[in-house]
Amino acid sequence: MESVTNLREMVLAQLRSRIVSGEAAPGTIYSVPAVAAEMGMSTTPVREALLELSRTGLVSPLRNRGFRVEAATPKDLENQFDVRIMLEAGALVALARKGLTDTEPLVLLADDVAAAVKSGNVTDYIETDRRFHEALVSRVENPLLTRMIMGLRADMRLYGISSPEGLERQRASVSEHYEMIELAAARQTDAIAALITRHIASWKPLMTAALQELSVGQTKVALR
Which of 7, 53, 73, 111 is the most buried (most CB within 10 A)? Predict the structure, then answer.
């Protein structure tokens, strides 16, 4: 059972990365047997992973065909950015107000993000970035807030993350992670609110542009 669970999490991470990065375009069909064959495993963990993605709205089940990747709209993206900024800024202000202690585990997680960026592995970047932010906001000791923030992060489409602009933004984010740790430890509430807002909002222009480019490409294909 543990092995199936671990495989499900591995498939979930890989498929979510493909979808949120835009590698798997809207309309892509994932067949459970095909994905299982590609990844060299049984169908059970693949089916469970796709069902989990369907519960978040990233894919929709198709009768006897598999699962279809669903599209996101510019308004969806805008709403996600707005809510993420409100929640994450609130979380980090609360953390800075109480004062962050025992910073070494967070520094090590920030090091993992830096290593992923240096290697150019986008899937590793997405995963290490997720672990860093989850560990950081969990220090507020509000499990509901942590679940809400991480749920939003997990299901946000990261269009353009692999583009030259996206790779540059990844590199810029590395130093911002260390700065968040320092500001939370120093109880700098205003500065950390401004930093996390910039950290999130800096992705918005390039993701919006990538989504628009994707939409134009799909329209041209549909008209052929």
Answer: 53
